[in-house]
Amino acid sequence: MPYPKISVIIPTVHNHTIKRALSSIATQNSSDLSAVEVFVIRDGQAPFTRQELGSYPFTLHLLGLLPGQGAAGARNVGLHFSSGQYIAFLDDDDEWLPNHLALTIPLVEKTQGIVFTDAELYHVQEGWHEPFRFEYQPSMLTKTSPVIPSTLVTTRTTFEEIGYFDTQIPAYSDWDWILRASRRGVPITRLPEITANYYFSIDSTSSRPCKMAPELRKLRSKHHLGPVPVANFAKMMTDPWFAKWRIPGP
């Protein structure tokens, strides 16, 4: 059956992986991807051309940003120009499995809140991969966030209520937004299915503690949080500090 109008927002700086991300949208289990619009927002460069990216069975919008806007700024621009009833995010170096929208959209329709799923985490340089599965409970958001942005799907009205991403703390803007939503009482639901592949690289912003530490201090100050470690999703897989929330398994 056709999807309702869905806007997918992809911030990008990785030219070599963007086609993989787009292809994963094109292969979603749906009879009608014409109800999907995709925004590719290129940070610090001119927009991609259609000749560079090719054609797809959905509406494709190509935007560019001035340098230094970051993923948070790019997502905000995509939100501003999008028109979908439902909003989904996909980072340029990640990909969805074919069941992602088919599983998440009905649950978002039901809850009218935020839905996120588990993912398979691939460490590009070290060559290992494992399921990223963490229990979700609202209280854990004062310590960490288990929400990989590429698995997040929500409603447009949620952004109208909560606001956009905070560009002053780009490394933690997704955690900040989820925490704001939780404190406003927005339903947040973990769907315990792997519907995305998340690729972690040492080239990622989240792999640079020197950049993340000052932003973590801003996040802690903004939300009056206690001490928490500087971490990324890959570190959450191995650091004992996060073990109490991690769900073991194959």
Automatic annotation (TrEMBL):
InterPro entries hit by this protein: Glyco_trans_2-like (IPR001173), Glycosyltransf_2 (IPR050834), Nucleotide-diphossugar_trans (IPR029044)
- Tell me if Ion transport is a UniProt keyword of this record: no
Any single GO molecular-function term of the entry would be: transferase activity
Could you tell me which residue ranges the Glycosyltransferase 2-like domain spans?
A: 7-116
Keyword annotations from UniProtKB, A to Z? Transferase
Name the record gives this protein: Glycosyl transferase family 2
Record the organism. Sulfobacillus thermosulfidooxidans (strain DSM 9293 / VKM B-1269 / AT-1)
